[in-house]
Write a structure and sequence with these properties.
Number of helices: 6
Strand order of the largest sheet: 1-2-3-4-5
Number of strands: 21
Structural class: alpha/beta
Largest sheet: 5 strands, parallel
Strand content: 15-25%
Helix content: 10-25%
CATH superfamily of the domain at 226-361: Ribonuclease Inhibitor
Order of helices and strands: HHHHEEHEEEEEEEEEEEEEEEEEEEH
Length: 361
């Protein structure tokens, strides 16, 4: 049986959490007894026992506020979160902090963030009067409502950011442009809600879901590039995007939520993705300029009010796969041409079809 060599065992020991684990590890084999001498940092919180076991420490790793400090080391590296306010008070303690959190914009002298800051706390820039904020490339996370209700006009987000949390830019009425990271994965609920001057957005291809009200009431949004891997658009995601004229839905999309595109009054045409089987309640209601609509061949169910008040809709090609259309699905639509296949299904009743014919007359 193949055994671990000394260097491989050292890598394993880096994941030990207790000093007794190290003692148990080095007694397994004679060649492991020299491993503690190979460590030039403390892999667990420092104390006198650790100092005795690891005599060659040159860099102290500090894991919490309460760790003992070793004298006569070349440097110290902190692996816990540290507030920027405390950092300003303790810059001369020779500790390098890997994670420094900014809790409030009032701690800044101007709109340029210091390079040492890696994280922005909840509500950090909420309501700030800064027109622009220059973020360090070291920033890896921002908190809920971080920029909400601020007067920021443009924003370039750092490349290592993977998530935009809840209400990140909610009610940023002055925001006109934003550059998102190419490897952004998550955009949470109401992230851009009521960014009424935002005109265009290019989304990362890593995003698979757009959550509730993500772009709701972005009334100046004209162009948005949807990810090629997008699978879900949740409730009211683009509701009241009254300037949105053209939209290409990716073929991977399987779910469009209720009210998702409601009141997109400039939207003229839409081709629904091939994997979509259900159109949810009022998902395209009040799209008053919508004139062309292409249904997927696998569509089975059209819910209440899905296309109600789409008064410009004039051609409907209903696929054979459809088994049910709610009587209010096309309320206040005035279609000139209605193509209903003759194939009959058990669930498609004559009464239901009469409702549709009456609704679009």
């Amino acid at each position: 049986m193949k055994q671990l060599d000394r260097y491989s065992m050292m890598i394993v020991m880096k994941y030990f959490n207790d000093i007794n684990d190290f003692y148990n590890g080095i007694i397994v084999c004679k060649k492991f007894k020299e491993i503690p001498l190979m460590f030039h940092f403390n892999p667990i919180p420092y104390n006198k026992r650790v100092d005795k076991l690891f005599p060659n420490i040159q860099t102290q790793y500090v894991f919490s506020y309460f760790d003992e400090i070793k004298e006569n080391v070349e440097k110290r590296i902190a692996w816990f979160s540290y507030s920027y306010s405390n950092y300003l008070l303790n810059q001369d303690n020779f500790i390098h902090f890997n994670k420094i959190i900014l809790s409030s914009s009032t701690l800044l002298k101007n709109e340029i963030l210091p390079e040492v800051i890696t994280d922005l706390a909840d509500n950090c820039f909420q309501g700030t009067n800064f027109n622009s904020i220059i973020l360090s490339s070291r920033i890896t996370s921002i908190g809920n409502s971080c920029f909400s209700s601020s007067k920021i006009i443009s924003l370039s987000l750092p490349p290592y950011l993977r998530e935009l949390p809840y209400r990140s830019l909610y009610n940023c009425f002055y925001l006109q442009s934003i550059l998102l990271p190419q490897e952004l994965i998550f955009i949470r609920e109401q992230c851009f809600t009521s960014c009424s001057r935002l005109t265009s957005v290019i989304l990362s291809n890593w995003i698979t879901s757009l959550e509730t009200e993500t772009f709701s009431r972005c009334s100046s949004l004209i162009v948005i590039s949807l990810p090629s891997k997008l699978q879900r658009i949740e409730d009211s995601c683009f509701s009241y995007c009254t300037a949105l004229k053209d939209l290409t839905l990716p073929s991977t999309l399987t779910h469009i939520g209720a009210f998702a595109f409601s009141h997109c009054s400039s939207l003229t045409q839409i081709k629904l993705p091939p994997l979509l089987e259900v159109i949810k309640d009022y998902s395209f209601s009040f799209c008053s300029s919508l004139s062309q609509l292409t249904f997927p061949m696998n569509l089975k169910y059209i819910s209440p009010g899905s296309f109600s008040c789409c008064c410009s809709l004039h051609i409907l090609n209903i696929p054979n796969s459809l088994t049910f259309i709610h009587p209010t699905a096309f309320n206040s639509c005035y279609s000139k041409i209605l193509d209903i296949p003759f194939k009959k299904t058990k669930k498609r009743s004559r009464k239901t079809m009469n409702f549709i014919c009456n609704a679009i007359q």
